[in-house]
């Protein structure tokens, strides 16, 4: 079946027709590839959109612990076997995008809650107003600039601030004519649960740099949160750019990405946007060569102490995003930037030069007709590991894998937890690799190589004669 890909006026992407590959109905799950000597070995924590909530696995894909009640996203493990993640139930019976997690909690290994936050916004439930954290998509505990393991920068477990991506209800007439049930909001709370800093994109809309055409499209058609919606939030952290005198990269500043076509850094001190790429990608040669950022997730500065430190890494999802002039793929101009494949990009934020990337082509698929072999149009992320490898979450397919700088897959895992109503969907959100010693309650597992069979010879045994 052929599908014609439309030309995006916003991003100047040229496409050709490609053959869409349907998903198989029978496939292996768990760890499908594992080369221990080439991996950065440890546990992997991820959130399964299906059962059983938060999942902790070893390198061989064994489920070593799960927390069914922690269903918000993302989830992370702190040193000492503590888990942080979102829970629902006080307001929502199940996770809903409109609300977010009721509470963001930190539990010890025995299930005792040692920290909780749930007072970001009030939501009307029946005739009652109830408080909620409305946490979604991201959070970071002080001590480390990002939510994953960084050598020498461990997140605090008994003190410190927490950066939270949250939501707020309200009306912002300069951005949209409609009530926004979940406008994006970044907050920072102290250990006592007091909000000590906050920032909302709808209050800084003019700083984004949208064209007049894009603004008109947003005003006419933006009836939901996606006109100004964020998918990540982390600290810039210590870095070489700030050490060299570039104030834009102050370690306390916040980096985030817009679901449309932007990545940007917010000054913690002034609240101003001090660095950005997007939403337009035609104004300079560097932007044109970088290419349009569409529907990004997990954009962050690679922390000091990891290979590539100071560069920005992002899962550039593709799909549809952005606003501008109408085109054949977007008659209204909403979500008018189109690309039917994903890219993981690592680039220099001062020059925008691409330093490293992972695509279907770098994975050795042939150009054009198989670009969509690597594609997750929602969710996903990428973590730089201490040995220089990158852990990638292709979330829509429930696939988590580790690749070398040379793009060799040295570990691959397919989540076995499927949606009941969609048998062949095993969506996850974000995954983090952590060292074994962060979970002292568990005995270090035995690492056994997993060598997959030759696909051309792989068969399912038949039943009977």
Question: Using DSSP, what is the number of strands?
Answer: 31
Low-confidence stretches: 1-21
State the distance separating the first and last CA atoms: 36 Å
Shape: globular
**What order do the strands of the largest sheet run in, or round the barrel if closed?**
3-30-29-28-27
Alpha carbon gyration radius: 22 Å
Strand content: 25-35%
How many structural units, i.e. domains? 1
**Mean pLDDT rating:** 88
The level of helicity is under 10%
The assigned CATH architecture is 7 Propeller
CATH class label: Mainly Beta
CATH homology superfamily name: YVTN repeat-like/Quinoprotein amine dehydrogenase
Describe this protein's structure.
- This protein has three helices and 31 strands.
- With 465 residues, it is mostly beta strands.
- It has a single domain (39-452), classed as YVTN repeat-like/Quinoprotein amine dehydrogenase (Methylamine Dehydrogenase, Chain H).
- A five-stranded antiparallel beta sheet has the order 3-30-29-28-27, with no helix packed on it.
- β19 and β20 (273-277) form a beta hairpin.
- It is globular.
- The two termini are 36 Å apart.
Blueprint (SSEs and pairs):
Layout: E1 2-3, E2 18-19, E3 30-34, E4 43-48, E5 54-57, E6 63-67, E7 76-78, E8 82-87, E9 103-107, E10 113-117, E11 121-125, E12 128-132, E13 139-141, E14 162-170, E15 180-189, E16 195-199, H1 212-221, E17 230-235, H2 240-243, E18 254-258, E19 262-266, E20 273-277, H3 285-290, E21 297-301, E22 312-316, E23 319-323, E24 334-339, E25 343-347, E26 354-358, E27 381-384, E28 390-394, E29 399-403, E30 409-414, E31 428-434
Antiparallel strand pairs: 1-2, 3-30, 4-5, 4-31, 5-6, 7-8, 8-9, 9-10, 11-12, 13-14, 14-15, 15-16, 17-18, 18-19, 19-20, 21-22, 22-25, 23-24, 25-26, 27-28, 28-29, 29-30
């Amino acid at each position: 079946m052929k599908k014609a890909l439309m030309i995006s006026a916003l991003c100047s992407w040229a496409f050709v027709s490609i053959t869409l590959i349907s998903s198989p109905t029978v496939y292996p799950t768990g760890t499908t590839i594992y080369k221990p000597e080439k991996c950065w070995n440890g546990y992997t924590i991820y959130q399964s959109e299906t059962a059983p909530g938060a999942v902790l696995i070893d390198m061989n894909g064994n489920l070593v612990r799960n927390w069914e009640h922690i269903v918000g996203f993302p989830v992370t493990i702190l040193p000492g076997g503590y888990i942080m993640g979102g829970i629902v139930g006080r307001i929502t019976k199940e996770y809903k995008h409109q609300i977010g997690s009721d509470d963001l909690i930190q539990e010890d290994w025995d299930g005792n809650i040692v920290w909780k936050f749930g007072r970001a916004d009030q939501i009307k439930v029946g005739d009652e107003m109830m408080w909620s954290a409305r946490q979604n998509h991201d959070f970071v505990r002080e001590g480390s600039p990002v939510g994953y393991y960084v050598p020498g920068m461990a997140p605090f477990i008994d003190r410190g601030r927490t950066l939270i991506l949250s939501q707020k209800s309200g009306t912002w007439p300069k951005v949209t004519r409609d009530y926004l049930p979940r406008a994006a909001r970044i907050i920072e709370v102290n250990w006592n649960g007091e909000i000590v800093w906050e920032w909302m994109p709808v209050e800084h809309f003019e700083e984004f740099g949208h064209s007049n055409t894009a603004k008109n499209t947003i005003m006419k058609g933006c009836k939901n949160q996606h006109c100004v919606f964020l998918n990540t939030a982390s600290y810039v952290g210590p870095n070489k750019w700030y050490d060299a005198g570039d104030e834009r990269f102050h370690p306390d500043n916040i980096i985030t990405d817009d679901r449309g076509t932007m990545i940007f850094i917010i000054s913690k001190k002034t609240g101003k946007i001090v660095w950005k790429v997007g939403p337009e990608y035609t104004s300079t040669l560097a932007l044109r060569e970088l290419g349009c950022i569409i529907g990004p997730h997990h954009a962050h500065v690679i922390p000091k102490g990891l290979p590539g430190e100071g560069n920005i890494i992002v899962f550039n999802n593709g799909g549809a995003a952005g606003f501008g002039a109408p085109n054949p793929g977007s008659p209204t101009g909403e979500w008018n930037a189109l690309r039917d494949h994903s890219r993981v990009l690592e680039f220099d934020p001062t020059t925008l030069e691409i330093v490293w990337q992972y695509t279907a082509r770098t994975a050795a698929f042939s150009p054009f007709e198989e670009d969509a072999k690597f594609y997750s149009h929602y969710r996903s992320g990428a973590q730089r590991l201490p040995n220089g490898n990158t852990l990638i979450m292709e979330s829509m397919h429930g696939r988590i894998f580790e690749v070398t700088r040379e793009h060799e897959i040295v570990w691959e895992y397919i989540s076995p937890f499927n949606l009941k109503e969609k048998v062949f969907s095993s969506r996850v959100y974000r995954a983090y690799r952590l060292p074994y010693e962060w979970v002292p309650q568990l005995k270090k597992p035995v690492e056994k190589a997993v060598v997959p069979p030759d696909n051309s010879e792989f068969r399912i045994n038949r039943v009977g004669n």
